[in-house]
Amino acid sequence: MLFPVDPLRLASLAALAVLVAPRTDLAPQVTAPAPASAALEDAIEVDVRDLTLLEWQEGDRLPDDITKLDGRRVCIRGYMHKSVTDTVTEFPMVSDSCQCTGTLLPHHFVEITLSSGDTSPIPGEFEVVGKLSVGEKKDEDGFVVSLYRLSRASVL
Amino acid sequence: MSSRRRGRRTSAPLFGVALVAAVLLGGCGDGSGGEVEPVVGVPLDPVAAGDPADGSEVATAPMRDEAAPTESPDDVQAKRMLEIARTGAPGKRPQAAARLATLGEAAARALRDVVGATNDDLGTLGPELLPAIAGVGDAELRARVWSAVHDSDFPYRPAATTALARTATADELGAFEALLEDPLSYTRSAAVEAFAVVDDRAKEDVVRGLLRDPSDIVRRAAADLLATWGEAWALRWLVEDLGRTDRFFELETGRNARYESARVLRGHLDRELFGYKAGDEPTTAENVAAIAAVREAVEARAGADAPRPPDFALVSDEVVDGVLGLEIRSCRRGEYFLAVTDDDRLLVGTGHPRSFALRPGAAERLVALAAKEFAEPDTTPLYGEFGCDQECYRLGAGDGERFVVRVMKGPQGPKDLRPERLDATAGALLAEIPEDLRLEGDDRGFVEELRDALRAVGGAL
After folding, report:
1. Segment B33-69, tens digit of pLDDT
2. Which one, A92, B134, B185, B241, has least CB within 10 Å?
3. Chain A residue at shortest CA distance from B94
4. What pLDDT digit, counting tens, does each position of B69-95 carry?
5. Do A104 and B260 touch (CB under 8 A)?
6. What pTM does this model have?
7. Do B96 and B81 meet the contact criterion of CB atoms below 8 Å apart?
8. Would you tell me how many other CB atoms lie within 10 Å of the CB of residue A50?
9. Residue B317: which region, alpha, beta or left (left: phi > 0; alpha: psi -120 to 50)?
10. CB hemisphere CA count around B349 (13 angstroms)
11. Beta-bridge mates of residue B279
C-alpha cells in the first residue's frame, strides 16, 4: 500500500531535497574509480543473502547455485561490516546492517578487495562489482579466513 | 591484576599444584570474589625466584625445581587463541574463540585475565569472545555473561544471550524465560535457543506464546523450535513469509523475511525447497509453484485443526512510506520503525505496521520544520561514527525525491552525536505523538520508549 502525498507538499519536499545537497567532507569517500557501465553489463547481480544465509560448516559442500558463480563477474549489494573504522582497501560485506547480534563466521560475509584506491566506512546498503571466487581459504593455523572473495572490486 | 595471579612461587611442581588448586577453588566458588591467598609467602624478586639472569651466587645455584615455570602448551595456545579472538581478522575471531573454549582450564585462566571487573570491561572485548567466556565451563565467568545480559547498557546483550543459550542448562531456563519479555527482539529470539538446547518440552506453551510476538524474528525462532518438537503446523508462519514483498521506505523488509524463513524451512523440508528462490519476486511462475508445493508439504504434516497464523503474521505487501521515516536501531534499547504519513498517521513497525493518529496537521508541521532546519545546504549523510547503532531519518515524499541522514554510533555508551537540526526534527516528531500512546503489552508510554532509544544512539534530545 503506497500512501498518497498531497501535490503541493510533494513540490515543497522536492524543493527541500534540492536544498540539502550533501556535504562531501564528511561523506564516505571512495577513491576507487567507478567501473565503466560496459563493465557492469556482464556482471551477474547477486544478493549477498544468497551467499550468506545458508547453513554451513567447515568442509561442507556449497550448493551448485553458489559454486557456479566461482570466477564470474558479479555485482553484490550489502552492508560494510562494523569492524571497519578507518580507510581500507579490503573489508567484509554482510547482509545485515546490525551486527551486534552474533559473530562473523566464514559463510556470513564476502571479503571485498578493491581494485585500486580505498574507501572510508560506508553507511547503509551499497553495491560492489568484481570477480567472485568461492571456496574455503585457510590460513597457516587452519582457520577458514573466507568462503567468498570479491577481487578487483569497485564500489558503485 | 587478577587475584589469582598473586600466588608466590617456590618450586615449579608446587606452583603447578597450587595454581590448579587456586583455579579450582576460584572457578567452583560461590562467586563471592574468588580471592586466593598467596600460596607461599616468599617475595617475588629475581633473587628469590632464582632468576639466572641475575648472575648472583644464589641465582646461579642449581635450583632446577625453582626455575621459572614454563607455561603449559595449553596455556600458550590459550593465550594465542585469545589474542586472535580479540585482534585477528573479523572472520577468524569466532573460530579462535571456539578453539579457545575447548582448552578448558587454560582458557579460563586466560579469559580471567582479560574480562576485567565490570560489564563495561567485558564490553570492550567485543561480542566474539562471549561464547568462550560463557561456555568454557567456569561458573564465575559464566556469571559474568549473565550479569552483562541483565545490564541494559551492555552493548552486546543479544550476542551474550546467544552465548549463554547455546550452553544452557535446565536450571537456567527460568532466567531464559524471563528474557522472552525483553524489549530487544534479538534477545528474545536468542533466548528461544536455550529451550531447544535443554529440550524441555514442558515449555511448549511458553514457546507457542511467542508465535504472537510482534517481531517476525521471534516468531520465526519459535516456529523453528516448535517444528523441531514435532509441531509441524508452526511452519505455517514461515510459509506466509515466503510471499512477503513489504517494504519500509527503501528497505526490503519482506525480501529479508523471505530469505530468513526459506533458510529455516530448508532445514525442516528439503534443501531445494521445491525450487523456491527468495531473491526472486514471489509472483514469478516458479516461485508461485514452489510456494504452493511448500504449503502443501506443510499442510500434509500439520493437522487441519492445528493453529493458524493471526492476521498480523500473514503475508504482507504493504509499503510503508510517508513524509518522514525514522528507523532507530539500538543494541541497548531496541529497534523502532516509524513513518509519518501525509494524512497524519504514525505507522509503527514493518510487515503489518500498527497505525495511530497523530495530532491534526502533524505531517504538515514536520515537513515545514524539516524544510526550515535543512534549508542550508550543509547537511551530511552521516553524523557520529561508523557503527551498529543508528538513527536513520528519511525526509521527503514517496516518489524517490528523498534524502537520508544517519546518526551512527559504536558500542560505547551515550554520546551527544545528533546535530541540532536532527534534535529539532526528532523532538518535533515526539511532540506530535500523543503522550498516552502505549503499544500493546508495553507498560511504558511509547514516547518515553522512543526518547530512551534516541538517547541511547544520538544522545539526549
Report:
1. 333 333 333 333 333 333 333 333 333 344 445 555 6
2. B185
3. A103
4. 688 999 999 999 999 999 999 899 999
5. no
6. 0.81
7. yes
8. 19
9. alpha
10. 18
11. none
